[in-house]
Design a protein that fits this description.
This protein is of the alpha/beta class and 382 residues long. The protein contains ten helices and twelve strands. The chain folds into three domains: 106 residues, Response regulator (Rossmann fold, 3-Layer(aba) Sandwich); 77 residues; 148 residues, Histidine kinase-like ATPase, C-terminal domain (Heat Shock Protein 90), CATH 3.30.565.10. The strands form three sheets. The chain has a five-stranded parallel sheet, sandwiched between helices. Bound molecules: adenosine-5'-diphosphate. Adenosine-5'-diphosphate (ADP) binds next to α9 and α10.
Length: 382
Amino acid sequence: MGSEVNKSDSRAGILVVDDQPSNADLLNIALAAEGFKVFKAYSGESALKLLQDIAAVVDLVLLDVNMPGMDGYQMCSRMKADDKLKEIPVMFVSAIDDVTVKMNGFQVGGVDYITKPFHRIELVARIRTHVDLRRKQREIEALHRNEVEHYRRMNTVKDNMLQVVSHDLKNPLSAIISGLGILKLTLWNAIQSDDKALSGFQLIGSSADKMRGMIHDLLDLVLVEGTLTLNRELTWLIPYLEKRLNDFNHMAAEKQITLKFTPPPYDFQVAIAPDRFAQVLENLLSNAIKYTDPQGMVELVAVLERDGVHISVRDTGPGIAEDDLPHLFEKFYRVRSVAHRDQTGTGLGLVIAKLITELHQGRIEVQSQIGKGSTFTVVLPA
Ligand code: ADP
């Protein structure tokens, strides 16, 4: 059987599997003389067992095709089905010089096939090629693993930072907003009677509101990006949607925007995380009202199609240019057009909506025409 594992040994490891000990010994001597570290096994079964312990230091398996019990092809198939062993290259060794037999070797996952009797120089050259390839592949895998790990760490640092900064900003901002409330109660007459004081007061108010929105969206983004699973509940769709729309009555009334609900012909249940999914609809509805001119209309429509439930928010707003459409779901992207000049958002609402929709295995689409309006549609799989 093979010698023991030493991970600090930099020699390439070869496992020789041959039911004839004399063959295995010959290969052992020849390969050891070329600087390889050789392990031996005399059957497919014992080789697989040995590999479970030494897989990390084996760079190639030199495998006899004809062996009693488990033959070389069977052993190779078993290796390729084992996550721990499947990447180790297998080179078949056989006295049979037949194309069909060789083809079988490649079909079960072998990388090479050499016929006995072989020339030592040829055997060693071929082994070196496969060992080098395997080592390069391992290096690339290790680099990739390091990169993924680095990215994961950086992402955690970013998330923690965002969370801490946003949380820390929240309290002083609340203090500013409540301070403004106090000023309004106590000094409103004086502020109102002075144009400069009034515009300064309004500027502080609108900036504080904007900042509150940004902090809210950033915290939401961190939360949603870190969410792996949702607590879904079967939810009746029509009352659920009605409630979401009614929450915007006040905002719409302020702009004299008509809200319309077009439900499906009959109610049914959808598996959603109700509070999370509400954020999707809230983002779409608030955008629709925000970007639509007074006296316009915003409609919430739900229909059951073959591929799932389509929930759309339609507006009679300014529409979005074709060039902007592909970027709408990118972080911090905001349309820069005359119609959008007064917007105060963060450019994160649609990103959050998309992430939450995707957590529900759904998708989000947009159709828009300049001057006519936009329709954002969320499709939840049936
Ligand atoms: P924001 O917080 O800026 O609204 P969103 O991610 O929700 O961020 O939207 C991104 C941009 O897409 C907005 O800044 C706006 O320019 C545009 N947009 C979103 N919804 C609409 C809509 N219904 N009509 C016109 N433009 C829209």
